[in-house]
Every structure is written in structure tokens, then in C-alpha cells.
Write a structure and sequence with these properties.
Structural class: alpha/beta
Number of strands: 9
CATH topology: Rossmann fold
Helix content: 40-55%
Radius of gyration: 22 Å
Largest sheet: 6 strands, parallel
Distance between the termini: 52 Å
Shape: globular
Order of helices and strands: HEHEHEHEHEEHHEHEHEHH
CATH architecture: 3-Layer(aba) Sandwich
Number of helices: 11
């Protein structure tokens, strides 16, 4: 009798514990993987605050490489990363990275959402350079350093280090902005003039976040692109610079999570 009671109790405990033990992996597996693509004059470290917030909330995050050589070539690299991920993906791009994710998501069945962080969302035939000049407000041009000629033709573009903090990261602590200036990744001038071909935002749901003090891409241009894409949500961060994901990582991460949870 006593043995049967003990055995029955153990079976009941196992039955109660088993679903709970199984629930955590199932919930974790249900979360999309977040793939982050940096933009010009930045690198993957610009996502560090966002990555920390997403990982804290149980998301798997991949900071994909962006060579900043050309929209199609860079998109092909990101598309390969996405193809290697089992399950749904939220694809996030900053600045020029927005042009890249728009191309990379085309034909990728597992991309469930696009998030544009102070980013370009070009229509077919549009370029990053053209969209920057479509509305007044960008002060990037005069802050660029003399172009660096490339052996294969074309030039690499950098922002002058002394002018980088005010131009690119005005709401980031000065010491951090100077580190970012020294570590900035150059973009090939041809990449900014390469036209988009088949933007995925036309059929993949999109979310936008940007600062109203952005000096690289005019806020009016980003508002225009968000409205044109039929964004499900647009967040405008008061006083935020072009690197809103560095200065306001929690708000950016929260938007990404809302995109990840959306049906």
C-alpha cells in the first residue's frame, strides 16, 4: 500500500512537471531569430545595446556581416545568413542596411518582419543617395573626408573623425562617439548610388524607428518611406541622432520585439 502510494505520487509529480519542463524550450523555439544589419560608417558593435536587451528577453540574435560594397552584393551575403536559419526571422537594418534588408528579404519565405532603424526603404530604381536628397536636412556631405581611391575603381567614403560625433552620434557620450569615429567602416561610393530592384517591404510587414534630430537621413525622408511602406508602427524618438539604436537601445529593442510578436 505504502509503495503504491509513493509510486502514484511520483507518477503524478512527473505528469505535472513534464509539461512545465517542456514549455520553456517550446516557447523559446517559437521566438523568431533577429538578424541585425549595420549601415555605413558603423559596424556590428553599434547593435550591442540592442543585442543585450533582446538576449535578455530570450531572443537569438545574429549580427550579419555587411561589407558596404554594393546593395545587391551585400544583400546576397545577408540572404545567405537568413537561409541558414531554421524558423522565422525578423530582419533589421540601420541606415544603408535598410536598402540591404529590403533586397535580402525578397524571396526569403522565413522573413516575417522588416524593421528599419533610421534606415532607407527604397522603391525599385531608387538609391540611398537619391532618397537622402529628396528632402532637405542632411548635413552629411560637408563632413565627409577626402575619398579614398580603391584599386579596383571607385572610392571609399569616411566621415571626418573630428566631425563624426556631431554629425553621426550627437546624443551619444562624447568619448563613446569618438571610439565609434575611429572604428567606423567605410562605404563604397558606388553602393550609395546603386538602385534597389525588388523591395520586400511591399509584401513583408514593416516597422520603423528613427530620431527627429537625425543629420544623415532627413527625418522627413524616413517619414515618407514609412508611410509609403504602410508601416505597422512608426516610432519617432525625440532628440535622437542617426544612431538611435546606440543612444536608445531599449526603445529599438522593444519595437523589434513587437515586430517579432506580431501575427
Amino acid at each position: 500500500m505504502k509503495k503504491s502510494l509513493i509510486a502514484g505520487g511520483l507518477m503524478l509529480a512527473a505528469g505535472l512537471l513534464a509539461p512545465a519542463a517542456q514549455a520553456e524550450p517550446a516557447a523559446s523555439a517559437a521566438k523568431p531569430t533577429v538578424v541585425l544589419v549595420h549601415g555605413a560608417f558603423a559596424d556590428s558593435s553599434s547593435w550591442n545595446g540592442v543585442i543585450a536587451a533582446l538576449q535578455h528577453d530570450g531572443y537569438t540574435v545574429v549580427a550579419a556581416p555587411d561589407n558596404l560594397r554594393g546593395v545587391r552584393a551585400d544583400a546576397d551575403i545577408v540572404a545567405d545568413v537568413v537561409k541558414g536559419i531554421a524558423g522565422p526571422v525578423v530582419l533589421v537594418g540601420h541606415s544603408y542596411g535598410g536598402s540591404v534588408i529590403s533586397e535580402a528579404a525578397e524571396g526569403a519565405a522565413n522573413v516575417k518582419a522588416l524593421v528599419y532603424v533610421a534606415a532607407f526603404a527604397p522603391e525599385a530604381g531608387e538609391t540611398a543617395l537619391g532618397l537622402t536628397g529628396k528632402f532637405p536636412g542632411s548635413t552629411l556631405g560637408p563632413t565627409l573626408a577626402p575619398p579614398v581611391p580603391l584599386a579596383g575603381g571607385g572610392n571609399d567614403l569616411y566621415i571626418q573623425q573630428a566631425r563624426f560625433p556631431a554629425q553621426f552620434a550627437a546624443d551619444v557620450p562624447e568619448a563613446q562617439a569618438r571610439l565609434m569615429a575611429a572604428g567606423q567602416r567605410p562605404i563604397a561610393d558606388a553602393a550609395l548610388s546603386e538602385a534597389s530592384t525588388a523591395p520586400a517591404w511591399k509584401h513583408v510587414p514593416s516597422w520603423f524607428v528613427y530620431g527627429d534630430a537625425d543629420r544623415n537621413i532627413p527625418p522627413a525622408a524616413m517619414q515618407f518611406m514609412a508611410q509609403r511602406a504602410g508601416a505597422r508602427e512608426t516610432v519617432v524618438v525625440k532628440g535622437a541622432s542617426h544612431v538611435v539604436m546606440v543612444s536608445h537601445p531599449a526603445q529599438v529593442a522593444q519595437l523589434i520585439e513587437r515586430a517579432a510578436k506580431a501575427p
